[in-house]
Model the fold of this input.
Amino acid sequence: MQQDNGRKENGKAPRRKFRAGWWYVAAALVAMLLYFLKDYRSSSPRPIIWNDFEKNILARHAADSIDVINGEVAEVYIKNELADDPFFRPVMKPRGGQRINAGPHYSLAIGSVESFERKLDDAQKGLAPENKIKLGYSKSTHPFINLISWLLPLALLFFLWRQLTKSYGSPGGDSMSPFGFGRSTATLQKKEDTSNVTFNDVAGLEEAKQEVKEIVDFLKAPDIYTSLGAKIPRGVIIVGPPGTGKTLLAKAVAGEARVPFFSLSGSEFVEMFVGVGASRVRDLFRRAKEEAPCIIFIDEIDAVGRSRGKNAFFSGANDERESTLNQLLTEMDGFGTNSGVIVLAATNRADMLDPALLRPGRFDRHIYLELPDITERAAIFKVHLKPLKLGGEMIEPSFLAAQTPGFSGADIANICNEAALFAARRKSSIVEKRDFLDAIDRVVAGLEKKNKIISPEEKKRVAYHEAGHAIVSWLLRRVDPLVKVSIIPRGKSLGAAWYLPEERQLRTAETFTENMCAALGGRAAEEIVFGEVSSGALDDLEKVTKEAYRMVAYYGFDRKIGPISFYDSASSTENAFQKPYSEDTGRMIDEEVRKVTGDAYQRTTSILQQHRPELDALAKQLLEKETVYKEDLELLLGRRVL
Ligand code: ADP
Done:
């Protein structure tokens, strides 16, 4: 069946046409005005210059009266008895008729009123006052010009207002309304077109799914719960690092329950106008209640839900955000537990949220999502491999999961897509294993830049640098196993070493130290071989310094500082200027950090000095082959002792 696309589903005429109609009316009005003005011109007084006026009118005493308009133009009325005078006839009896034109008959531009009066007086010297020309002054314009002068600004204001309401009004809302600013910008997915996302599309996250299934059941059959006197949570907050599937989970809830789904981002509440946020919250809840049962999904709720007053010192208490938050709290308190509106919110900064938001009765259920572990990653790969056209070697999701520790669900989705793009670039009709490996490398280290210009000396330095990393990490058993090392430039870096991080939650002090040594391996190798260091170790040094500070000041690994942690989980950034330790302790921390890194550097240097032949051999291999794999290292250094 053919559908009329111009009509909205609710049957209202589309606004576009209405707007076009307005433009037609405006155009017609302008045309009419122009027509009248033209007409007015044709019967307007004939312009005359002073010389002609003096010679033909003043000298003959033909003028009956003169009206000075706005101090600029003198409009001259000729005596009626001169209507048949050959000079005046054309203006007094236009179009050859008998009717005398009432005037004004001539218009004379005058420089200034004073000079005009003086000239007039001079010309009429000696005349009796009753014979002198009657002189009047008036301030007048044509009625249409008058009309325009007040209509135009009004029309301008009207259009300005329309533009503003149009740009701030909600997409679906009534943009003619002056209150369009305060409309919520949430997009609504109707029941019929709710996302087809179901729990099957969400891999892993079993506990989280279990929690939200209850909500789905409630939305499907609220009576079972209400008849038992049970109350369903009004709000569920989903906390987790970016890309762990928070939005996906919320969509799956809506998809499973088959209810309308309002989704918006927390930052959409906050506008530059005061009061807009609060009114948007009100509008959102009003719309939601109309559609109940339904789900409101607020992404990045920390944009509005940040602790009130915490940042007052820096940002000068953001009243607008606070009033928005207050309104949100009020609305959440306001609707009945069983009204069928459930608010899902997502954030990756739960620590920033206002405690009032998290108390029971508001967002009383919290779901924590973590980065997926190896089995969950395999499950996510399985979901995202489904739409791809695979071929060639068998691609095991578990193999890919093992290659991608620390990756989020979004990263995995991205890798699958990148793999398909790599296959397309190869003009292949299927996606193969190598495409996945390339995609993983690309996500980890950036795209290969094979044609980056690097001088042979630089290449040699890079080879030694990477060989240094590889050898030190190979010989220290607590460092993650090396997969490969390459001197092909990627992204910003000139070379890279790939490790396969192990899935572990705890790291000992020695693990930290050994990882520091591995990171310093590049610089140490450069120093040993070339006798001078280069700027290429910047990233390594940054990492090492941060790790060292963490070891000393956070994890209490340092003997001299003792088992003390200056880490403050509650406020990571707010109190950045207030150090929780004395100057002496600060100095001691700095000294210890220097010592820790210095020791690690020395250890690295001695390892490399002991294995100088292997270092040279590996660097040579790298220069020849560009990429060296684990197997080559095994040949060179023997199996890794674990
Ligand atoms: P966020 O937590 O930042 O809201 P999203 O839910 O937007 O993350 O996830 C982004 C994308 O990552 C999703 O569209 C989906 O393709 C993929 N993804 C994330 N987690 C999972 C998962 N558990 N199962 C399947 N796909 C996932």
